[in-house]
Write a structure and sequence with these properties.
Elements (H helix, E strand, L loop, with lengths): L1 E9 L5 H8 L3 E8 L2 E15 L2 E16 L2 E18 L2 E7 L2 H16 L5 E3 L4 H9 L7 E5 L9 E4 L7 H9 L1 E8 L6 E5 L3 E5 L4 H12 L5
Antiparallel strand pairs: 1-6, 1-7, 1-12, 2-3, 3-4, 4-5, 5-6, 8-9, 8-10, 10-11, 11-12
Length: 227
């Protein structure tokens, strides 16, 4: 089982109560008609809940896919339930969408339009190579995979190391001098879960984990790493 999410940053440092005010009651309906098919598609924000320096909720997003039966195109509706959380820090506001990267990006653009009337106000985050290394070296014996980028080797975009005790290898020291950590798989100190993390804020947990624990882990362990 894999649980994935992506972190974003709001351009404007926005209080959580203002975000809640704009998202509360959001519901948009769209009618789809094609030949004999009439389908009502609905996008809405549900289950908003304010916590300590956090605002959580669910975005219910209706989508259509198409299948074919004996040459006839048949629309099939599906509702995606995207759990999200906004986190408040002293000088910044962050968004986590618990979904794979492409869908999380779409959700972030929708939230940008809802909160700021335009796209481009919710952006990708950046975790510095130094912070990636710091996260790995908190628990170096449990880091199983590291990818390095920004290497000065022609035609080599990324190099990877797999296995236990990576920090003890000469290759680790060599790659670290030449490049930067782009992606790693390690173990969360607080939750004991196997976590994959990229510098652009994509977080993946390998194994069983409740979404609430996933959100709490991101809030406590990953958000503090962001530049």
């Amino acid at each position: 089982m894999v649980l994935a999410g992506k972190i974003f940053r709001l351009v404007e440092d926005t209080p959580l109560d203002k975000i809640a005010e704009k998202l509360k009651g959001y519901r948009v309906e769209e009618d789809f008609e094609e030949e004999d098919y009439k389908i009502k598609l609905v996008n809405e924000v549900m289950d908003l809940a304010m916590g300590f320096n956090s605002l959580r909720g669910v975005l219910a997003w209706d989508t259509l896919r198409f299948t074919y039966h004996r040459g006839k195109r048949i629309p099939v509706p599906k509702t995606l339930y995207l759990t999200f959380a906004f986190f408040k820090r002293p000088s910044a506001t962050f968004l986590l969408v618990v979904e794979r990267k492409n869908m999380a990006n779409r959700a972030a653009n929708l939230f940008s339009q809802l909160l700021f009337i335009s796209r481009g106000y919710i952006l990708n985050v950046s975790i510095s190579p130094e912070k990636m290394r710091e996260y790995h070296e908190r628990n170096p014996e449990n880091t199983k995979v590291i990818f390095f980028d920004s290497l000065p080797i022609p035609n080599i975009d990324k190099l990877s190391l797999y296995g236990p005790d990576l920090t003890q290898t000469d290759l680790y020291s060599s790659y670290l001098k030449m490049g930067s950590i782009w992606y790693l798989v390690t173990v969360s100190n607080s939750y004991g879960a196997t976590v994959g993390l990229t510098r652009d804020g994509v977080v993946v947990v390998f194994g069983k984990m409740e979404k609430t624990d996933f959100i709490n882990m991101v809030n406590s362990e990953i958000i503090p790493l962001i530049s």
